Amino acid sequence: MLRGSPTLSCPGLYTSQVDGCGRDLSAEKAYLQRYSVCEGHFKAEVAVVHGQEMRFCQQCNKFQDLREFEGSRRSCAARSKDRNMRRR
Asked: What does the alpha-carbon distance between residue 1 and residue 4 come to, in Å, rounded to a whole number?
């Protein structure tokens, strides 16, 4: 079974991993359920996860420290650099 997938005995198992959010993700899009993040925090510049300020990297598909990002970009600097190198 996939991590975080609901079972018949546990409806509404999908919840956001952001501290204090607790939003039920069972009606959200599949990719939001897969990464355990609600739409608001998926696009937010700052979200608190495990007590740390982070941002969701849409290239790495995980929360990363804010220092990994340049400005308000949604992709971390490392992935942006890799992508730019491939494009050249």
From this structure: 9
Which of the four pLDDT bands, split at 50, 70 and 90, describes residue 34?
Answer: very high
Examine the pLDDT at 3 and tell me if it is beyond 70.
Answer: no
Residues in Cβ contact with 72 at an 8 Å cutoff, skipping those fewer than 6 apart: 45
For the chain, state the CA radius of gyration: 15
- Give me the phi and psi of 15, to 5 degrees please: -135, 155
Long-range CB contacts (within 8 A, 24+) of 53-56: none
pTM of this prediction? 0.75
pLDDT at position 12 is 55
53 SS3 class? strand
Q: Hey, what amino acid is at 71?
A: G
Nearest residue to 17 via CA among 35, 31, 1: 35
Amino acid symbol at 49: V
Take residue 21 and report the two structure tokens written for it: 């959010």
